[in-house]
Amino acid sequence: MRIGASLRRRRDDDRGVAAAMMTIALVALLGMSALVVDVGNAWQARRHVITSTDAAALAAAKDYVQGNNGCAPGGTAEDYVVRNNADATMTNCTSVALNATTPGRVTVDAEVDVDYIFAPILGLTGTTVKSSTTASWALAGSVSSDLRPFGQCADLLDSSWIGDGSTHKIFYSKDTHPTACNGYLNVPGNWGVVDFNFGSPSAQETRTWTEFGYTGPPPVEIGKWYPSGPGAPAPGILEQKLKALKDDMTIFPLPVFDDCRNCAGNLLEYHLSGFVAVRIEDFDLNPPKGDEFRFLELEFYDLEILQGGGGGTVDLGTYVIGICAIDNTDVAANCG
To answer: Who contacts 72 (Cβ-Cβ below 8 Å, separation ≥6)?
Structure first.
């Protein structure tokens, strides 16, 4: 009898130990669940709020390019934060204006409260995840995409046209029209094909870049010389590409030149000074009255591009914008 009672007590003790171990294991399991599920949810929420501040900073930068206040209460930045994440709250929006030496920049801060599912067992109810994104804008000094190959003479571009949506007909010939390009230069015409990759310009390249735009590398940069062929662009298939651009109402950048060398020969080169944003309203590459009446009729716009670099010196309405810093890391170094 004594032996049986002792065995029963030992079994009861074993059950108690097993229950305690199961409790400890359950707490550990819940702790691991908290780590996996709750921390994972917080990480996912952080990704979403980063997306929100990225979108908001870029949209606000576009506003500043257009002369608006991207950080206005209830304005663009706040709208884009909430539009991209309904749970997010914008906590701050600050900007620094563009000047002659440094790009403009705007910083958008936002946060999201995350409620934990399992961690409250451990005394943790939730966390707040935050994100800060800085976007910059500057006059385009280089362009890496969507650039069409029809260089425009700087002398013909009236500053009042830039970004106002006005339409102007630019004739190729500078000899039979009063708005002659660079009267002191022997440039073949008021506009011409620019070869972006420093090769011999071919009809196929010109057609491809007209249809799809030039895409680097390398980027096309101001301050550099780019070759061209003498004479106006030949009609034919090129007209089909221009008509497609016209019909699609595509807005795109064009290079602007302010000088030439070997101006009248087969080694003609243009010196690029900027980029102008336009839409083709009309064109004629094969006029019945003669080549001197070839023209491009262009409508002028402001344009913000994402693939390019700053450093432009003349405001022709084309700006490059981009994200330059995350969570206020190296803002001064990376954002100008």
So the answer is: none
Give the Cα separation of 83 and 112 in Å (integer). Answer: 14
- The DSSP-derived string for 3-69 is HHHHHHHHHHHHHHHHHHHHHHHHHHHHHHHIIIIIHHHHHHHHHHHHHHHHHHHHHHHHHHHTTS-
Are residues 294 and 285 in contact, defined by beta-carbon separation less than 8 angstroms?
Answer: yes
Strand partners, 254: 276
Which tokens sit at 217?
């590398």
Q: Judge whether 153 and 215 are in contact, CB under 8 Å.
A: no
Q: What token pair was written down for 252?
A: 């795109």
Tokens of 167: 């339409």
Note the residue count of the chain: 336
Amino acid identity at 239: E
How far is the C-alpha of 214 from the C-alpha of 150, rounded, in Å? Answer: 11
The pTM is what?
0.78
Over residues 201-256, the pLDDT tens digits come to 577 888 889 999 998 888 999 999 999 865 666 677 788 889 999 999 989 999 99
Domain segments of the chain as ranges = 2-137, 142-309
Which of these, 304, 320, 106, 290, lies nearest to 220 by C-alpha position? 320
CA 220 to mean position of chain CA atoms? 16
